[in-house]
Design goal:
Helix content: 25-40%
Number of strands: 10
Largest sheet: 6 strands, parallel
Structural class: alpha/beta
Number of helices: 9
């Protein structure tokens, strides 16, 4: 079997067409994936398949859907100040399930959220994050209901994303926007384990998967902290953004993903990505 993990950002809205709006892209991609014969499965299924060397399901291409950063737009519809009403990622999935009943029986996605309330608040008000006039668009009130709904799981996207909008991050290094600086047990524990604990408490659900902010990884995280401290942080796998299909020898602690708008920008490019996976 072949496997591919796709990533979308619900705050990526700069227009009303595929290339400028991840909500439009996701709705289109659900149809493209189905027409291409790909099977959408929960992220856990991809992880377990990799653990067995991608054996089984001969000839099939499995695809998992992931959403990054945790805007409420993953869960709830909203009205964009410039581009009008937007269907949430969750409701895009529900719409597809109604339009094509049974076409993707395991339809599911994982939303990787940022844990720190202070970090999310700082990002909400930052001009360059896109929505400074909208309150609570990175809030966490929706996590619990989303996790209960069955279509959307909540994953770990770190404590504060080491984001430039955050006045004080959890790590010792003053650098911003570079998760490779998380290179000690203390820093990793603050960014990963503490985040997992908070997310589990707020969502009242399992939080078992980690997505590296910016896709940034280093040897310490992949080879030391993530595997050796798994009983502490509780993660079962971690994901980067290498923009390709999963290979049988990929580390369970750095599973590649492809990002909408970066690794593909049209239905044709998605089909090409699927073709390379197959």
């Amino acid at each position: 079997m072949k496997a591919l993990v796709l990533t979308y950002h619900s705050h990526n809205i700069a227009g009303v067409d595929y290339a400028t709006n991840d909500h439009v892209a996701l709705a289109c991609d659900l149809r493209t994936l189905t027409q291409s014969g790909a099977r959408i499965v929960p992220l856990a299924r991809i992880v377990e398949a990799l653990r067995s060397g991608l054996e089984g399901a001969h000839g099939e291409t499995w695809v998992a859907l992931t959403f990054d950063d945790g805007p409420s737009f993953d869960y709830a519809d909203f009205v964009h100040a410039r581009f009008g009403p937007q269907r949430s990622f969750l409701n895009v999935m529900r719409d597809f399930a109604r339009e094509a009943p049974g076409a993707q029986a395991e339809l599911h996605a994982t939303s990787f959220v940022i844990a720190s309330p202070d970090a999310r608040s700082a990002m909400e008000s930052a001009e360059d994050c896109g929505y400074p006039d909208m309150a609570d668009w990175l809030g966490d009130a929706w996590w619990k209901e989303a996790a209960k709904g069955g279509l959307l799981a909540i994953g770990n996207h770190s404590w504060d994303h080491v984001h430039h909008a955050v006045p004080r991050t959890a790590i010792v290094d003053p650098a911003r926007d570079d998760f490779t600086r998380v290179a000690s047990y203390i820093d990793a524990d603050r960014e990963i384990r503490r985040a997992a604990d908070f997310i589990r408490k707020r969502s009242r659900a399992a939080c078992e998967y980690f997505a590296y902010p910016f896709g940034h990884v280093n040897a310490f995280l992949v080879e030391d902290y993530m595997p050796c401290r798994a009983p502490e942080h509780g993660m079962r796998a971690a994901f980067g953004v290498d923009g390709r299909a999963i290979a049988p020898d990929d580390s369970i602690w750095n599973i590649p993903r492809a990002v909408c708008g970066h690794h593909w920008k049209s239905p044709a490019e998605l089909r090409a990505l699927l073709g390379r996976a197959s």
